[in-house]
């Protein structure tokens, strides 16, 4: 009912809010015209940060496929702003909207490259960063249509306003149709300048002078002119202004410098050091001329796994006070520039790494633009930073680490099962991890399959088997393949698996000590019963819990039950060993008696101390596997707990199918001892399964973590079945 009633809204979406806003367009009856402008802040548009369930992956696929297929019909102007390297939750590479030739109304920029912002933000502060707030507010004011008093419907104007404020700010107010004629009026003094290099120092606030530079002679020698003041710098290419006779510089009571230069004399090529130089070698250039501006071309720099430290050392002569120099890293294929401000003379370290890899068809070169002082000499040194390379590995592939940890544990698990089959004893988890967790057992197969998928006949055979796309191919399509990255992750994964196993073992011992303190000492089981009377009831109860509440909650309860059983076994073994120390003769008689009973049926075995130790070693590995399944299901549990006031049953529930299989399996394994499965006909087959499953975890689970538990429960299920076959 208002005079200028709005017909649409502008949306600013932070993090997943930006993706939800994009998803509105996929709704069947949603009117696209209701949204005029979409600005997203730290929104992972490309893929989920951690693909922990198939629902989020399917959601991303639905949204992105819709935007790609309907790009010609989507008139929504979209701006995506990333936080840069300080955002540890959402890496900036995920925030860049897909560049489509027929969809030009989308912009993606990192906050460090936004004019008048120039800083990186973390995941939350991107919302309240004052510089970014002001930039956004100024853009909204310029987007208002003078006639309708609403945000303009003109897509070209919207894009030009966003370009003005977020991409390239010309240090003046936005003008939709800028005037090419200016009136230079007033009583200011006019001073002609014929030299190629000029410096002005203002002493009197009332001094306002026009300096005129005739261009006729300068065009013959120079290609560019550069001017800087305390508040502004500007570079003009002379051939872009062929009709101009003079350059006029108006100096309103501030210091200023101008110089004409030839581009070739200010462009210096600096090849970066090799990835495997590990910072032991460096390359250097010295700027010993008196220029104000230099372009250093960083040759062979365009991959996300490259990372360097650039050291700029400035030495000044005849300078009594500090002078400001600015070093700008310019990445021409994406808006991810960054600024470093230094007071010279000084030594300044600049970190150089990428959010987006250079496209294959892009021939541009990354630049270090140096705005310098004519009184100083600059020495620029570049060397590979090994620590920052590891940082890039973690930034781009850290989400795949759980898959590599579980792959290592599976290899150790298979080794333990095989040692039980071949020798009758289960070796220590740490020993088997050291022996079995080798990258050459996993990586060659993945590399070979990736190579074969390049052939049409193998791809057709692969599709005929209904196998999902190899994760390595997904990463290659996103320009995220590092050399040796799988090896590095495997080493990290094995280390994590080792320390995780050590921590879980210590926790079990600590809990068993607490158990013995609170309760009277328990004995080793006299008879091994795989299915105790209360086991079916417990299994049914947990399955009902999974069905009526949340699968992840039932998995957590199953995990706690399993830990309780292992703690009880550890306490019993500790009691037995203590009694053995006090009365060794009685202990030997008990051991002989228990060994005599091993000839009885499997379901009525007496557990010996050595069997209990073997069982604990096996259970410690199973606990490590189960711990990671619980961790991967935690987001689902947290979501359910946060929304309990709205609904009691989680629907859809990504963990429910897994819970239905895992609950009875772990219920049986909690009562399983090595003595009961040594003679199983299924044990040899069970011991052979973890190796191909460890390969499958890396091949299909490194970029789709929700698939990993599917590879884990198979050997656990076979292990449980060994009690009956």
TrEMBL record:
Keywords: Endoplasmic reticulum, Hydrolase, Membrane, Protein transport, Transmembrane, Transmembrane helix, Transport
Domain GPI inositol-deacylase transmembrane: start-end pairs: 400-724
Region described as Disordered: 580-601
Compartment(s) where it occurs, according to its Swiss-Prot or TrEMBL record: Endoplasmic reticulum membrane
Gene3D superfamilies noted in UniProt: alpha/beta hydrolase
Bias (Basic residues) ranges: 585-596
Stretches assigned to the GPI inositol-deacylase PGAP1-like alpha/beta domain: 2-142
Molecular functions per Gene Ontology: phosphatidylinositol deacylase activity
Transmembrane segments: 401-421, 470-492, 537-562, 622-641, 657-677, 689-718
InterPro entries reported for this sequence: AB_hydrolase_fold (IPR029058), PGAP1-ab_dom-like (IPR012908), PGAP1/BST1 (IPR039529), PGAP1_TMD (IPR056824)
EC number of this enzyme: 3.1.-.-
Main location: endoplasmic reticulum
GO terms, biological process: endoplasmic reticulum to Golgi vesicle-mediated transport; GPI anchor metabolic process; protein transport
A GO CC term assigned to this protein in UniProt: endoplasmic reticulum membrane
Membrane topology: Multi-pass membrane protein
Annotated family: Belongs to the GPI inositol-deacylase family.
Function: GPI inositol-deacylase that catalyzes the remove of the acyl chain linked to the 2-OH position of inositol ring from the GPI-anchored protein (GPI-AP) in the endoplasmic reticulum. Initiates the post-attachment remodeling phase of GPI-AP biogenesis and participates in endoplasmic reticulum (ER)-to-Golgi transport of GPI-anchored protein.
Protein name (record): GPI inositol-deacylase
Species the sequence originates in: Balaenoptera physalus
């Amino acid at each position: 009912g208002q005079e200028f009633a709005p017909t649409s809204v502008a949306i600013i979406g932070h993090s997943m809010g930006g993706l939800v806003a994009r998803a509105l367009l996929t709704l069947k009856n949603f009117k696209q015209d209701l949204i005029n402008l979409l600005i997203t802040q730290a929104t992972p548009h490309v893929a989920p940060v951690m693909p922990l369930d198939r629902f989020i992956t399917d959601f991303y696929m639905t949204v992105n496929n819709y935007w790609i297929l309907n790009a010609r019909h989507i008139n929504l102007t979209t701006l995506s702003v990333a936080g840069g390297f300080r955002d540890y939750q959402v890496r900036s590479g995920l925030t860049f909207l897909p560049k489509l030739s027929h969809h030009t109304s989308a912009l993606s920029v990192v906050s460090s490259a936004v004019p008048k912002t120039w800083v990186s933000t973390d995941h939350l502060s991107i919302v309240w960063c004052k510089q970014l707030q002001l930039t956004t507010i100024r853009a909204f004011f310029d987007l208002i249509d003078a006639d309708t008093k609403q945000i303009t419907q003109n897509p070209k104007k919207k894009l030009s306003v966003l370009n003005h404020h977020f991409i390239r700010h010309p240090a003046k107010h936005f003008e939709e149709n800028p005037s090419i004629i200016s009136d230079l009026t007033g009583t200011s003094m006019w001073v002609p300048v014929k030299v190629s290099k000029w410096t002005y120092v203002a002493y009197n606030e009332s001094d306002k002078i026009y300096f005129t530079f005739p261009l006729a002679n300068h065009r013959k020698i120079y290609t560019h002119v550069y001017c800087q003041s305390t508040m502004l710098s500007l570079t003009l290419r002379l051939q872009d202004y062929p009709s101009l006779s003079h350059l006029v510089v108006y100096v309103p009571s501030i210091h200023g410098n101008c110089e004409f230069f030839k581009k070739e004399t200010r462009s210096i090529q600096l090849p970066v050091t090799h990835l495997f130089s590990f910072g032991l070698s460096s390359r250097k250039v010295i700027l010993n001329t008196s220029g104000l501006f230099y372009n250093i071309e960083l040759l062979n720099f365009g991959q996300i796994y490259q990372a360097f430290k650039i050291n700029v050392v400035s030495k000044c002569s005849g300078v009594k006070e500090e002078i400001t120099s600015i070093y700008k890293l310019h990445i021409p294929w994406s808006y991810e520039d960054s600024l470093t401000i230094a007071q010279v003379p000084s030594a300044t370290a600049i970190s150089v790494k990428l959010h987006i890899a250079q496209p294959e068809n892009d021939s541009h070169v990354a630049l270090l633009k140096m705005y310098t002082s004519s009184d100083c000499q600059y020495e620029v040194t570049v060397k590979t930073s090994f620590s920052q390379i590891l940082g890039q590995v973690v930034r781009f592939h850290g989400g795949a680490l759980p898959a590599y940890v579980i792959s290592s544990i599976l290899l150790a698990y298979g080794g333990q099962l095989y040692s039980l089959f071949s020798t009758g004893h289960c070796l220590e988890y740490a020993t088997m991890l050291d022996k079995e967790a080798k990258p050459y057992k996993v990586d060659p197969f993945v590399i070979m399959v990736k190579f074969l998928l390049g052939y049409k006949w193998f791809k057709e055979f692969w599709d005929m088997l209904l196998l999902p796309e190899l994760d390595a191919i997904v990463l290659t399509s996103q320009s995220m393949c590092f050399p040796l990255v799988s090896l590095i992750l495997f080493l990290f994964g094995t280390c994590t698996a080792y320390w995780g196993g050590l921590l879980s073992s210590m926790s079990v011992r600590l809990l068993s000590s607490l158990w013995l303190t609170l309760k009277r000492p328990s004995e080793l089981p006299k008879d091994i019963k795989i299915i105790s009377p209360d086991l079916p009831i417990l299994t049914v109860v947990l399955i009902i819990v999974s069905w009526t509440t949340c699968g992840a909650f039932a998995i957590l309860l199953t995990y706690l039950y399993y830990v309780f059983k292992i703690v009880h076994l550890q306490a019993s073994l500790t009691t037995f060993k203590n009694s053995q120390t006090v009365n060794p003769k009685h202990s030997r008689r008990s051991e002989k008696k228990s060994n005599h009973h091993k000839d009885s049926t499997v379901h009525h075995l007496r557990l010996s101390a050595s069997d209990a130790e073997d069982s604990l070693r096996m259970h410690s590995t199973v606990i490590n596997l189960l711990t990671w399944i619980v961790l991967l299901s935690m987001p689902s549990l947290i979501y359910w707990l946060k929304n309990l006031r709205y609904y009691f049953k989680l629907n859809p529930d990504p963990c429910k199918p897994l819970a239905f299989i895992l609950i009875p399996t772990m219920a049986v394994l909690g009562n399983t001892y090595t003595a009961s499965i040594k003679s199983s006909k299924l044990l040899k087959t069970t011991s052979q399964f973890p190796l191909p499953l460890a390969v499958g975890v890396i091949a299909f689970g490194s970029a789709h973590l929700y698939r990993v538990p599917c590879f884990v429960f198979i050997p656990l299920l076979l292990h449980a079945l060994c009690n009956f076959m």
